[in-house]
Write a structure and sequence with these properties.
Blueprint (H helix, E strand, L loop, with lengths): L1 E5 L6 H12 L2 E4 H11 L2 H12 L5 H13 L7 E4 L5 H13 L6 E6 L2 H9 L1 E4 L5 E3 L19 E2 L6 H15 L3 H5 L4 E5 L4 H13 L1
Parallel strand pairs: 1-3, 1-4, 2-3, 4-8
Antiparallel strand pairs: 5-6, 5-7
Helix pairs in contact: 1-9, 2-3, 4-5, 6-7
The structure holds BIS(adenosine)-5'-pentaphosphate.
């Protein structure tokens, strides 16, 4: 099964993708994570992407589609893919069609996380992750059980994303409305889109997505 998780910044795509990986053995393909890894490693792609990401704009379609193709090629043919943060433009949606077809895969679901944009700024500006294992936390919604110590690995260093400030988040949301939302009709016409209330509790969102995948 291959699915797309679609929604604006902070909608919960990464949170829900991680849960699907744990529960169903699917593989999360997050272009944001791939680009951040490239920036950290100082690769040519990373050097090109850094300023664009810091400004909240979109990296070129060619770069991200190449990353997705390479990631799919590293997967076993029977492993399902969760596309998280990709596609983000009509051009990327069209490229994904040929990427999947070329690998004998089909798209089964597009799950749109429906959210209130004003609440998202709070979600994003409050989030932080463990520097060692990447476990996610939030200033208000999910603190480590012991202050300053990661629940998952015991790490004591945490980090925040440079693009998680209120001004950049607004730009990222504008990019979503202008460039990403227009891909929905493309999938609606094929009956692939299911909407989930992304403002519900995390567990409720997980259950709603699970019900769609089990249908
Ligand atoms: P990317 O990393 O994809 O960021 P994004 O789409 O802005 O999404 P986020 O990771 O910010 O949010 P999310 O929906 O995963 O939410 P999360 O689960 O973390 O992209 C970053 C940049 O890379 C882009 O701006 C662009 O420059 C570039 N890029 C990436 N892909 C690209 C592409 N395809 N084309 C071009 N450029 C690309 O949740 C957020 C917070 O909310 C967390 O703290 C979480 O704990 C909390 N939370 C989640 N769900 C709930 C809930 N139900 N209730 C309460 N809190 C919740």
């Amino acid at each position: 099964m291959n699915i797309i998780l679609l929604g604006p910044p902070g909608a919960g795509k990464g949170t829900q993708a991680a849960r699907l990986v744990a529960a169903r053995g699917m593989v999360q393909l997050s272009t944001g994570d791939m680009l951040r890894a490239a920036v950290k490693a100082g690769t040519p792609v990373g050097l090109q992407a850094k300023a664009v990401m810091d400004a909240g704009a979109l990296v070129s379609d060619e770069i991200v589609s190449a990353l997705i193709g390479e990631a799919l090629d590293r997967m076993a043919p029977d492993q399902g893919a969760i596309f998280d943060g990709y596609p983000r433009t009509v051009a990327q949606a069209e490229t994904l069609e040929s990427i999947l077809a070329g690998r004998g895969r089909t798209l089964d679901h597009v799950i749109e996380l429906d959210v209130d944009e004003d609440a998202l700024v709070d979600r994003i500006t409050g989030r932080f992750t463990c520097a060692s294992c990447g476990a996610g936390y939030h200033d208000r919604y999910k603190q480590p059980a012991v202050a300053g110590v990661c629940d998952s690995c015991g790490g004591t260093e945490f980090k925040r994303r440079p693009d998680d400030n209120a001004e950049t988040v607004r730009t990222r949301m504008a990019e979503y409305r202008a460039k990403t939302a227009p891909i929905l009709p493309h999938y609606e016409a094929r009956g692939l889109v299911s909407r989930v209330d992304g403002m519900a509790e995390m567990d409720e969102v997980t259950a709603a997505i699970g019900a769609i995948l089990d249908r």
